[in-house]
Design brief:
This protein has about 300 residues and is of the alpha/beta class. Helices cover about 40% and strands about 15% of the residues. Strands 7-6-5-8-9 form a five-stranded parallel β-sheet. Helix 2 links the parallel strand 1 and strand 2. Helix 1 packs across helix 11 (about 285-300), helix 5 (about 135-150) crosses helix 6 (about 165-180) and helix 5 (about 135-150) crosses helix 11. The protein starts with 14 loop residues before the first helix and ends with a helix. Bound molecules: phosphoric acid mono(formamide)ester. The site of phosphoric acid mono(formamide)ester (CP) has 9 residues, from helix 2.
Length: about 300
């Protein structure tokens, strides 16, 4: 039994709850690969996606995850919705719940928006990214992807890029640390804060070498230009030169180091094409695992509700 109604963040999940989701995801991945194994365990459930920010991976994988389990899936297109007539987030959520929606998968630019909806709407709320706060299903799929290749406990995981604005970096750091890994962060000093070290087993590094040397996993992050009024570095070429993950940096990591990126990737900004497409890159596998993990989340939250 999974005792939660909502999935709002990684912070409030125990290690056992994380492992339970990942265990169910293993079974879900088999169902993706072999359609005849699929069941319709969510056939009486209606799920809405409510994305106030752009998305390809998260929205599409939730839509497919629900459909693979037999749920009715609907997307509220914010750009043509009554949000543009001034309807509030809470009223929008209540409206969806009144139509019989049992779960709302929500992405919003404001940190805490999904918590607000969970307090005010009678439906399961799944946080698909809230501002710079958390992106729990991304962390779960990242952990799942690592666990398919390596035992995560004791690993050195380097995360390089725009840490300050990244909900992925925060959820990943908390998730990996709960599973026993050590997380090393590196970014321009304007895009990182020492405050990340409040999380257990998380270290903010002074240079790329300290972050990547001996790493078992190297993850790049997109620069989130949309979250900054003023760009926090001189220009993209300089960013790539000093902070982009390229072959020379990867040579410092373990030979079998896994390369990851939550996407969307900007080639030649946060990572070189040769790194993105190298044989150890699991970036495409992350996308596939996203469907399995989101199937597991929907099943655990809704099946017995
Ligand atoms: N990783 C991620 O959240 O991608 P999307 O913005 O495409 O959903």
């Amino acid at each position: 039994m999974f005792g939660k109604k909502h999935l709002l963040d990684i912070k409030s999940l125990s290690k056992d709850e994380i492992l339970q989701i990942l265990d169910v995801a293993k079974d879900m991945k088999r169902k993706i690969n072999v359609p005849s194994l699929r069941d319709d365990s969510l056939k009486n459930k209606s799920i809405a996606t409510l994305f106030y920010e752009n998305s390809t991976r998260t929205k599409m994988s939730f839509m497919l995850a629900g459909k693979y389990l037999g749920a009715t899936m609907e997307d509220l297109n914010i750009s043509t919705s009554s949000v543009n007539k001034g309807e509030s987030l809470i009223d929008t959520g209540i409206t969806l719940a009144q139509m019989g929606v049992q779960a709302i998968v929500m992405r919003n630019g404001y940190a805490g928006a999904s918590h607000l909806l969970a307090k005010n709407v009678n439906a399961s709320i799944i946080n698909a990214g809230d501002g710079s706060n958390e992106h729990p299903t991304q962390a779960l799929l990242d952990a799942y992807t690592i666990l398919e290749k390596k035992n995560i406990s004791g690993l050195k995981i380097a995360i390089i890029g725009d840490i300050a604005n990244s909900r992925v970096a925060k959820s990943d750091a908390i998730c990996f640390s709960k599973l026993g890994a050590f997380v090393y962060l590196y970014a321009p000093s304007t895009l990182i804060s020492k405050r990340m070290e409040i999380f257990k087993n998380v270290k903010v590094c002074e240079n790329m070498k300290d972050a990547i040397e001996g790493a078992d996993v190297v993850m790049g992050l997109r620069v989130q230009f949309e979250r900054e009024k003023n760009v926090k570095f001189p220009n993209v070429d300089e960013y790539y030169k000093y902070f982009g993950v390229k072959d020379d940096a990867i040579k410092l990591a373990q030979k079998d180091a896994i390369i990851m990126h939550p996407g969307p990737v900007n080639r030649g900004v946060e990572m070189s094409t040769s790194v993105i497409d190298c044989k150890n890159s699991l970036i495409n596998e992350q996308v596939k695992n996203g469907v399995a993990v989101r199937m597991a989340v929907l099943k655990l939250l809704l099946e017995n509700g």
